[in-house]
Write a structure and sequence with these properties.
eight-stranded mixed β-sheet, 11 helices, alpha/beta, single chain
């Protein structure tokens, strides 16, 4: 039994996407250890069951761990997840938009969106907006979105036809663009939620040894990944900044910031552009049908 004094999140509800491995699993495990009721979201039911068992073993049998299996690259699944959350919970204190992929070959989802754009940006944009009523019902709520230092080379292509063109596609730019979108989304969300009980922040977790790449990731990217592996940090260390933003008393009133190493970090000029952020919001609303 974990002492109550070490369970500061007792009574809180947290949802973590991409929570069946890597940073997401480490984040969910620590939130549960601190007493939060945790909802794990993953695509694979078997992996989700193993993650649930691992968290309950680490956090104790009293840990409340729920599982939701959805592929969030599809907006219909994002809506279904939000619908289930609204039916089963009366509030949401912590939302961690962690799920993400490193693009492989060019892929369009069934709904007509480039896969990494759909997974890394449209899904957290839509899910956060759909869950705003639950977040607003909490005494104080936090939205934490995992971005990347890769955003420095990103830019937002406003034309969906260009983003959906195989001739224009690059795995590097697709990933960097989606990570830039994470920051712009966070800054616009924080501005829109100013004077509410909801904060929104994003972060670079560091170079973490996770299962981010897909089987069809380019040979060049795989070679770079394996070369860099000795320098990578563990998922537990990679989750530290996420947890700092999700649970630390020090960040309870901080909003609209980009963090790295558990401190406010510098981001690119594009990431600081209010014009870009406003334009991205309009694009996202049009492409998801969620305002």
């Amino acid at each position: 039994m974990v002492p109550a004094s070490s369970r500061p999140l007792m009574g809180k509800t947290a949802l973590v996407t991409g929570a069946t491995s890597g940073i997401g699993l480490a984040t969910a495990q620590e939130l549960a250890r601190q007493g939060a009721r945790v909802v794990l979201v993953g695509r694979d039911s078997a992996k989700a069951a193993r993650a649930q068992a691992a968290i309950q073993e680490a956090a104790g049998p009293e840990a409340a761990v729920h599982v939701k299996c959805f592929d969030l690259s599809l907006l219909r699944n994002v809506r279904a997840l939000a619908g289930e959350m609204q039916q089963e919970f009366d509030r949401l204190d912590i939302l961690v938009n962690n799920a993400g992929i490193m693009p492989g070959q060019f892929t369009l989802t069934e709904e007509g969106h480039e896969l990494s754009w759909a997974t890394n940006h449209l899904a957290p944009y839509a899910l956060t907006n759909l869950l705003l009523p639950l977040l607003d019902a909490a005494e104080r709520a936090r939205v934490v979105t995992v971005s990347s230092v890769a955003h420095w080379v990103g830019e937002i292509e406003p034309d969906q036809a260009v983003r959906n063109s195989p001739d224009k596609y690059s795995w590097l730019t697709a990933y960097a663009d989606s990570k830039l979108a994470n920051i712009l989304f966070t800054k616009e969300l924080a501005a829109r939620l100013d004077l509410t009980n909801i904060t929104a922040n994003c972060l670079h977790p560091g170079m973490v040894n996770t299962a981010l790449m897909r089987p069809d990731t380019s040979v060049v990217m795989k070679a770079l990944w394996w070369t860099a592996r000795p320098l990578m940090i563990s998922p537990e260390k990679g989750a530290q900044t996420t947890l700092y933003l999700a649970a630390s008393p020090e960040t309870a009133s901080v909003s609209g910031q980009y963090f790295a190493g558990s401190r406010v970090a510098r981001c690119s000029d594009r990431a600081n552009s209010t014009t870009e952020a406003s334009r991205l919001w309009r694009i996202s609303a049009e492409e998801t049908g969620v305002e």
